[in-house]
Design a protein that fits this description.
alpha+beta; 6-stranded mixed sheet; 19 strands; 42% helix
Length: 704
């Protein structure tokens, strides 16, 4: 048992097995983990969610050690699940006993083997360094002729081997791990270095009996429990369309008053895959300006995801991923995978979204989701100080989010009836933006879009009616805000200093990239290695809807944020002479380093599609941005480089500081303090008032 820093309720069950490395062709433990971790129909997770006991379940097998192997099941419990954790454990072992009674299932094994073979055969390229590290370890585990396929393929169905693993899948071979703040009174030991409370205790007799006899007095459920049904989403057609004489960039192939479709047939990758990007922009229920409406939209999304969970999991096992998200301008859908499956899945999932309705009988699930949302928002105040600082900076310089504090206030008064009322006026209007890339023909893409828009049947709105989002225009002043950390146990404070440059041009973008390349190592060496202000220091670029800037981050338990800002300013001032003296050779070296990064080739269709999608969302449509960026980098001259450094860093006064203050630093107990007066700053008392009264750049891009 352990007591976590954040609010969560987790149960982990780990079964220990004899070394299974030699059984890699059959992979019996991976077969068992796939059954227990399945999220489709007949799954354990569906039963636990229906009973209000858990919200997520993951399961994985490992046969990488030479002395033992294991299966690990991790469950995120609800409040009710934690209070009734013995029932959760009983359900886990009831599922296992059901599987053991049936014995090995060759049909399910072959389906897993087919899925694994598809993922291996059509695996996207990956970073060479990571792949080499993986292969190095695999060379110790597999015969040399099987090093490439050993970790991936299910090559041999061996009923006796699988039955042996099933027989060893018993309570006496497992350990239980609980993590919850409610366990604090039971955890009397402290881990060195981390200070985490924990305890090791024997499994109590009542729970042990339930594990040994799980089918006795098992709670009733309306959900079936057993093997998954046949997966009908597995692709059958792997034909790769001809790639000759095709446009290099996306084309606008369908345009209506409330819909834009950009399409690019694959001309680069030898893969039968496609990606579909859709954003439905709307101002239904005023979600951009109304935090309460946004909270209700989050509830709607969570109910929707649960509605789609089982069928979505089946499609993911067939190699088709689905992401459904919300923004302050509406909702988005991103689907990627085998083109044969994508063509049927996109219309199917959008039809389910259109037909989806939260029912009055689902009120019990609202309580679970309400508690989960409260924990999620509360945990935002337990994040690392530098993460909190960056989140607050985002809120202060963009009009794209509702602060967690405001959402928590709104959440207090939200009831299930509010969610039912919200959905009556949601999914009413929309402006569609599409990008379809990959192994599809234009006619297939247009047919798909026509089908989806006919199914959704949203009332049209124009682009001008779509909510716009802006970036704050900093004035010639240094603004700062001090925010006390709510986690009084965290000894670290954090500073995030934002230096604004201004609207992006190709020349400015080239200059900020070269400056960051030149400065980042110097920044770290000076403030971390030499002055030792903390273990986390960064100097990065920031771009918000076409507005460029730099961001300096320091998290420290030895220096207060104001002292850190003094040292950052001193670093920029003292480095100015080095910048002025930079040689042509050193400048060229830094330019080439940035060019090398920019020229990294995309490894798969979805990565290419993501790049195009950002161009569409930002309204830039610069399809060859990489080429233009490289060309602009080679035009950077020493004079412009020096001037940019002075204007944007060493002599820039358009700065916004967010200071997260630890309890120790707030009370003056510890921490280096400024040695001299720092520049005059405009101190903010109310983060929300400052957000409301901000002045923004005129050009507003849609939410990216």
């Amino acid at each position: 048992m352990t007591v976590p820093n954040r609010e969560n309720r987790r149960l982990v069950i780990r079964w220990i097995f004899p070394d299974a490395t030699s059984q890699y062709k059959t992979k019996p433990l991976h077969y068992l983990a796939a059954l227990l971790g399945h999220e489709g129909p007949n799954s354990l997770l569906s039963v636990l969610i229906d009973a209000g006991l858990a919200t997520t379940l993951t399961c994985a097998a490992s046969a990488d050690l030479t002395c033992l192997s294991f299966i690990e099941c991790s469950l995120l419990l609800t409040d009710r699940g934690m209070d009734n954790h013995e029932d959760v454990v009983q359900w886990v072992f009831a599922f296992i006993e059901n599987i053991q009674e049936v014995g090995p299932n060759e049909e399910f094994y072959k389906e897993e083997a087919t899925s694994a073979a598809l993922m291996f055969k059509y695996k996207a390229k990956e970073r060479g360094a990571f792949y080499v590290v993986q292969l190095t370890g695999d060379m110790f585990r597999y015969p040399i002729e099987d090093v490439l396929i050993g970790p991936h393929l299910f090559e041999k169905y061996d009923e006796a081997v699988i039955q042996g693993a099933l027989d060893a899948w018993i309570p006496s071979n497992c350990n239980l791990y609980f993590s919850c703040k409610k366990l604090e009174s039971l955890c009397t030991q402290v881990r060195p270095h981390f200070g985490t409370l924990y305890a090791n205790t024997p499994i109590n007799p009542i729970l042990n009996y339930k594990m040994e006899n799980p089918l006795e007095d098992l709670p009733e459920t309306s959900k079936p429990l057993g093997f998954p049904p046949k997966n009908t989403f597995l692709p059958r057609d792997f034909t790769v369309l001809p790639r000759d004489n095709l446009p290099e960039n996306p084309q606008l192939v369908r345009e209506k008053s409330n819909s834009l479709l950009y399409f690019k047939q694959n001309n680069k990758f030898d893969q039968p895959k496609a990606s579909v990007f859709l954003t439905v922009n709307t101002d239904d229920n005023e979600i951009k300006d109304n935090a309460r409406s946004y909270c209700l939209l989050v509830f709607w999304l969570r109910f929707l995801k649960e509605e789609l969970r089982e069928i979505r999991y089946m499609s993911e096992n067939a190699g088709v991923s689905t992401e459904t998200n919300i923004t302050l301008s509406g909702w988005s859908l991103v689907i990627s995978g085998f083109s044969d499956s994508v063509k049927s899945w996109v219309p199917m999932v959008t039809k389910k979204i259109r037909e989806f309705t939260i029912k009055e009988s689902q009120e019990q699930f609202f309580d679970v989701r309400w508690a989960s949302m409260r924990r999620l928002l509360k945990n935002k105040f337990s994040q690392k100080p530098f993460d909190q600082a960056q989140t607050n900076l985002q809120y202060l310089i963009q009009d794209t989010s509702h602060h967690a504090e405001i959402r928590m206030q709104e959440l207090k008064s939200i009831e299930f009836s509010d969610v039912l009322d919200f959905q009556k006026t949601w999914l009413q209007t929309g402006f569609y933006e599409w990008l379809i890339v990959g192994n599809l023909e234009e006619a297939e893409a247009v047919k798909m879009v026509d089908s989806v828009e006919e199914t959704l049947a949203l009332k049209p709105i124009t682009r001008e009616q779509v909510p716009k989002f802006h970036t704050r225009k900093l004035q010639e002043e240094i603004r700062s805000i001090e925010i006390p950390l709510r986690n009084v146990k965290d000894p670290n404070s954090a500073l995030v200093s934002y230096y604004q440059v201004g609207p992006r041009t190709e020349e400015k973008r080239a200059l900020v990239q070269v400056l960051q390349q030149y400065l980042s190592e110097k920044f770290y060496t000076r403030l971390r290695t030499q002055e030792q202000h903390g273990y986390l220091l960064e100097l990065n670029l920031r771009e918000d809807r076409g507005i460029l800037g730099f961001i300096a981050v320091i998290q420290s338990d030895v220096s207060v944020p104001k002292f850190c800002f003094e040292r950052i300013q001193a670093f920029f001032a003292e480095t100015e002479k080095e910048v002025e003296a930079i040689s042509d050779e050193e400048l060229k070296k830094n330019i080439e380093a940035v060019v090398t990064r920019r020229r990294v080739q995309e490894r798969h269709i979805h990565q290419e599609g993501n790049r195009y999608w950002q161009e569409i969302l930002s309204r830039q449509h610069v399809w060859d941005r990489t080429t233009r960026d490289v060309e602009a980098l080679y035009t950077v001259e020493k004079g412009a480089f020096i001037k940019a450094y002075k204007d944007w860093l060493s002599q820039n006064s358009k700065i916004f500081n967010v200071e997260m203050i630890s309890a120790a630093h707030k009370d003056g107990v510890s921490g280096n303090v400024p040695e001299k007066d720092i520049p005059v700053q405009t101190v903010i008392d109310d983060i929300h008032a400052d957000h409301v009264n901000a002045i923004y750049f005129d050009d507003g891009f849609l939410l990216e």
